[in-house]
Amino acid sequence: MRKLSREEFSEAATLQGPPATEYFAFGLSIRSDIPLPELSPSALVGRDADLSIRLAPCGRPLPPEGSGVVIDLDPDGGHYLAWPGVAVFRFHGPARIDVEPYPGVSTALLAFPLLGPVFGLMLHMRGALVLHASAVAVGGRSAVFVGDKLAGKSTTAGAFVEAGHRLLTDDLLAIDLVDPLVPRILPAFAQLKLSEESSAAIDLGDAEALPLAHASLPKRQFRLGGGFSHRQMRPDHVFVLARGGETPMAEPLEGFDALGAIMRFSYIARFGGAVLAGEAEARHLHRCARLARTARVSRLHVPAGLDRLGETVAFVQALLGER
């Protein structure tokens, strides 16, 4: 994965600004025909982008609305993904994605598959280890939260933001493994997705609550005014969230248990065996093993109840040696 120079990184990582077609996220400069206000505007206007997102026909008839998601993976990198009724996405390797929306679809709705599964596949193609996780910077260290659906990954991250810490990513975590010794989290963008119940319990300060892009979506997006960091950090501690227990408690996982936890929450696994066939499977296993060796992995038992989130924050702060 290409790394920006220190000067480019500082120049690109501006957190606020008007909508633009040049963006910065996951350590990449992005040029997009689709407005993506979720992402940070980039100052690297006019330079070659790492990723180009274009509005263009994708070479096939649009699948009928109401049919299932289409995932057609190409060994040469020409992947085809379709969400009937929303959009079709055609890859041209890891540096270009063509998007063909269905008539009348809002750009806000396009961002859901684009900044989720589509970006997850793109980052995997670029050599990153991609997990279904949220992560925060706690002082000079990082905490990564994985877990089953409804385990509270975003809610837990939101509690850390409320406590004055900084979000690194929500839902899609990309880890750069180019450095053979030190993996690095590639921060995403300043946005959290929370249920109505969680957002009522967590004070995100001046975060902007965005309108639901579709009535069926279970979570609302909150654009953070602050509380976000573009700093690339090593993944210090991976926590597998488990609800229940009288007090927060960390159960260390080692060896195959740690590796199994990381593999279980790999984002790329949702695409099925086709994307991990042959040598790709061995490379993916190696990426997961590197993270299991270099980060602490624990099962984090947390008390149920949104009113007890502060206990988990205090416990993790102490475990990381940060306040």
Describe the structure.
With 323 residues, the protein is of the alpha+beta class. Helix content is 25%, strand content 28%. The protein contains seven helices and 20 strands. Strands 3-1-2-4-8-7-6-5 form an eight-stranded mixed sheet, with helices on one face. It has a six-stranded mixed sheet with strand order 12-10-11-18-20-19. A three-stranded antiparallel sheet has the order 9-13-14. A hairpin with a 4-residue loop joins strand 7 and strand 8. Helix 5 crosses helix 6. The two termini are 33 Å apart. The N terminus is likely disordered.
Topology summary:
Elements: H1 6-12, E1 22-25, E2 28-32, E3 40-41, E4 51-55, E5 70-72, E6 80-83, E7 87-91, E8 96-101, H2 107-125, E9 129-132, E10 134-138, E11 141-146, H3 153-162, E12 166-169, E13 172-176, E14 184-186, E15 191-194, H4 196-201, E16 208-209, E17 220-223, E18 237-243, E19 249-253, H5 255-264, H6 279-294, E20 296-302, H7 309-320
Parallel strand pairs: 2-4, 4-8, 11-18, 18-20
Antiparallel strand pairs: 1-2, 1-3, 5-6, 6-7, 7-8, 9-13, 10-11, 10-12, 13-14, 15-17, 16-17, 19-20
Helix pairs in contact: 5-6
